[in-house]
Amino acid sequence: MPVLRLGDDIDDYCIKCKRVTNHSILAIVDGEPVKVRCRSCYNEGPYRRCVVPPSKRELQKAALLKQMMEQAPAPPPPVVEARPARRASQKPASQKPARKPAAKTARKKKA
User: Would you place residue 44 in the very low, low, confident or very high pLDDT band (cuts 50, 70, 90)?
Assistant: First the structure.
């Protein structure tokens, strides 16, 4: 990766433009941009690495889901019913024969 300097152009997500645009680097810490300025709307903000931040609605849904999961009761353990052992001489219960569909009657056309 090339060495970044103050004033260099870099792509990043702009909160105001709501899209990835060119940005100028305003501050660098440990060789990575920290603060950038959008070259379209001149909005300054932290470098987001082109990651779109979640909307307020998504954050509210996540918080509500977390709250519901914490309050939900634990599911009961599965109930296993013990079946009586079958003897070899016993036959399984007979199944009912499948019904045949009723025959369709042809309709007469009125002329």
Answer: very high
